[in-house]
C-alpha cells in the first residue's frame, strides 16, 4: 500500500487563535498535510458530505474536533460521524480545552479515536499537534 503524498486534515474549531496554532504547527510538520478549517458542526458535516459549497472537498484522513462549538457540540458531531457508514472509519481526535472526565468518557463512548487536551503553552501545543500527526500518519494505518 502506497503512502499518500499529502494528508488532508479537517479541523473543526471555532477559536481563531487555536486554529492559527494548528496551522502554524502543521507548517513545521514532517508529514505533508493540507489543513481544511471549518468553524462549526453544520459546516463540518457539509464538508464531510460535500454539500453547501464544499462539493470539491476531499475525504479527510483525520478530523481534529473541538468539543465547545457554537450550535451543536463536538460530542453531537462525533456521534453523527460515527453513525454515518461513509464517514465512520475516519479517525476523529478530540482536541479540547476540557480535561473533564465526563467529556473524555463521553467522547470515547461515542467513538473518538483519541482525546487530547489542548496545552496552554504554545510549544506544548505544537508538540501535541506533531505527536498526533506522527501517530496517525507515521505509525497507524488509516483507511484510504
Overall CATH architecture: 3-Layer(aba) Sandwich
Shape: globular
Q: How many helices in DSSP terms? A: 5
Overall structural class, as computed from helix and strand content, comes to: alpha/beta
Overall mean pLDDT stands at 94
Helix content: 25-40%
Oligomeric state: single chain
Question: Largest beta sheet: what is the strand line-up?
Answer: 2-1-3-4-5
What is the radius of gyration?
Answer: 14 Å
Count every beta strand, where a strand is a DSSP E run of 2 or more residues: 5
CATH homology superfamily name = Response regulator
Terminal Cα separation, in Å?
10 Å
- Biggest sheet, in brief? 5 strands, parallel
Number of domains: 1
CATH class: Alpha Beta
pLDDT below 50 for ≥5 consecutive residues: which ranges? none
Order of helices and strands: EHEHEHEHEH
Beta-strand percent range = 15-25%
Describe this structure as you would to a colleague.
This protein is α/β, with parallel strands linked by helices. The protein has a single domain (7-139), classed as Response regulator (Rossmann fold, 3-Layer(aba) Sandwich). It contains five helices and five strands. The chain has a five-stranded parallel beta sheet with strand order 2-1-3-4-5, with helices on both faces. α1 packs across α5 (122-139). It starts with 6 loop residues before the first strand and ends in a 5-residue tail after the last helix. The modification 4-aspartylphosphate is found at residue 66. Keywords: Phosphoprotein. InterPro entries: CheY-like_superfamily, Sig_transdc_resp-reg_receiver, TCS_response_regulator. Residues 8-133 form the Response regulatory domain.
Amino acid at each position: 500500500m502506497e503512502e499518500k503524498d499529502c494528508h488532508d486534515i479537517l479541523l473543526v474549531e471555532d477559536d481563531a487563535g487555536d486554529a492559527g496554532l494548528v496551522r502554524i504547527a502543521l507548517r513545521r510538520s514532517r508529514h505533508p498535510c493540507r489543513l481544511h478549517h471549518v468553524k462549526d458542526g453544520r459546516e463540518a458535516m457539509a464538508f464531510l458530505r460535500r454539500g453547501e459549497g464544499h462539493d470539491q472537498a476531499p475525504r479527510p484522513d483525520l478530523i481534529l474536533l473541538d468539543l465547545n462549538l457554537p450550535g451543536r457540540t463536538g460530542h453531537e458531531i462525533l456521534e453523527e460521524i460515527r453513525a454515518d457508514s461513509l464517514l465512520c472509519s475516519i479517525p476523529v481526535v478530540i482536541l479540547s480545552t476540557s480535561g473533564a472526565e465526563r467529556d473524555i468518557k463521553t467522547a470515547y463512548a461515542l467513538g473518538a479515536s483519541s482525546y487530547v487536551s489542548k496545552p496552554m503553552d504554545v510549544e506544548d501545543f505544537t508538540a501535541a499537534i506533531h505527536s498526533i500527526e506522527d501517530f496517525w500518519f507515521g505509525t497507524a494505518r488509516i483507511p484510504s
